[in-house]
């Protein structure tokens, strides 16, 4: 299983709170070439109108204020239609979405400064991927493919992820995930990362409070994996709200519950 992941960083429209989204899509490896051809066919009618054949799909370019303005004036927008067609295709194909929306200070950048401790954001994400793999594809391995950021970020995250998956008791339990992450670029025809970019953009717009994008968000919601964990239902999209202020003496308890004090 190929799990393509991307990030988006935004500010809520009303509260002005900053947050980050780390999200992506899971595509079976043995059908990935077929997926590439199908998605190319979906975007082909828009070549020369919205983008060139070699152009990359960018969520921020397809879904912006100009797109909304044109859609309101004309009743349609080719940029919106392209994004909608791509998401409808992914939903129809049964592609699953996984992610974390984080409003908490110190965690919303998705950078692991301590290579011996994996941020809890990644752990929530890996937990959901692992549950999905063991329930749906018990004989397959998930390979994490992150979109390109910068070398320093990749180095920090790669060390922390590998240490967690390969050396910690909790991480060793996530044995459906390959212990070495991959990093790639979305340029050219890497439609896995381009789809992850579009999905991440829609999630970010929704949690930003942009109600205009609700139809696209509803499509992404249908791509979430809902599973039973014990007696509770768990979504493949984890939302980490701001941590409440605790009285002195309860701080350690909250940190332990969030995984902040656990080290390798």
Concise synopsis of the structure shown:
The chain is α/β, with parallel strands linked by helices.
Detailed description of the structure:
It is built from 10 helices and 8 strands. With 264 residues, the chain is an alpha/beta fold. The protein has one domain. The chain has a 6-stranded mixed sheet, with helices on both faces. The longest helix is centred in the middle third of the chain and has 17 residues. The radius of gyration is 19 Å and the shape is globular.
Relevant terms:
264 residues, 6-stranded mixed sheet, alpha/beta
SSE topology:
Layout (H helix, E strand, L loop, with lengths): L1 E10 L6 E10 L4 H12 L15 H4 L2 H10 L3 H15 L3 E7 L17 H17 L6 E5 L3 H17 L1 H5 L8 E3 L6 H17 L6 H9 L3 E4 L2 E4 L1 E4 L10 H8 L6
Parallel strand pairs: 1-4, 3-8, 4-5
Antiparallel strand pairs: 1-2, 2-3, 6-7
Helix pairs in contact: 4-9, 8-9
Gross morphology: globular
What does the average pLDDT come to?
A: 89
What's the end-to-end separation, in Å? 27 Å
Query: N-to-C SSE series?
Result: EEHHHHEHEHHEHHEEEH
Helix share bin: 40-55%
Task: Tell me how many strands there are.
Answer: 8
Helix-and-strand structural type: alpha/beta
The low-confidence parts are 246-264
Query: Can you count the helices?
Result: 10
Biggest sheet features: 6 strands, mixed
Percentage of residues in strands? 15-25%
Order of strands, widest sheet: 5-4-1-2-3-8
Rg from Cα: 19 Å
Overall number of structural domains: 1
């Amino acid at each position: 299983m190929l799990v393509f992941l991307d990030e988006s960083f935004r500010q809520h429209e009303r509260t002005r709170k900053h947050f980050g989204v780390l999200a992506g899509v899971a595509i079976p490896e043995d059908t990935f070439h077929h997926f590439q051809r199908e998605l190319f066919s979906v975007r082909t009618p828009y070549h020369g109108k919205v983008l060139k054949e070699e152009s990359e799909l960018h969520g921020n370019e397809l879904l912006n204020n100009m797109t909304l303005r044109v859609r309101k004036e004309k009743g349609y927008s080719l940029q919106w239609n392209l994004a909608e067609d791509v998401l409808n295709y992914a939903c129809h194909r049964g592609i699953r979405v996984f992610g974390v929306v984080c409003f908490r200070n110190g965690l919303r950048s998705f950078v692991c400064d301590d290579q011996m401790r994996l941020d809890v954001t990644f752990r929530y994400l890996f937990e959901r991927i692992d549950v999905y793999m063991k329930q749906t594809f018990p004989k397959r391995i998930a390979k994490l493919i992150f979109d390109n950021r910068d070398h320093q970020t990749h180095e920090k995250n790669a060390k922390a992820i590998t240490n967690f998956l390969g050396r910690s008791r909790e991480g060793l339990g996530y044995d459906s995930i390959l212990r070495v992450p991959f990093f790639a670029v979305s340029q050219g025809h890497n439609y896995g990362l381009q789809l992850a970019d579009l999905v991440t953009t829609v999630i970010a717009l929704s949690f930003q409070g942009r109600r205009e994008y609700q139809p696209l968000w509803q499509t992404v919601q249908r791509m979430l994996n809902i599973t039973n964990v014990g007696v509770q239902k768990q979504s493949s999209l984890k939302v980490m709200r701001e941590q409440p202020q605790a009285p002195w003496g309860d701080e350690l308890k909250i940190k332990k519950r969030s995984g902040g004090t656990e080290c390798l």
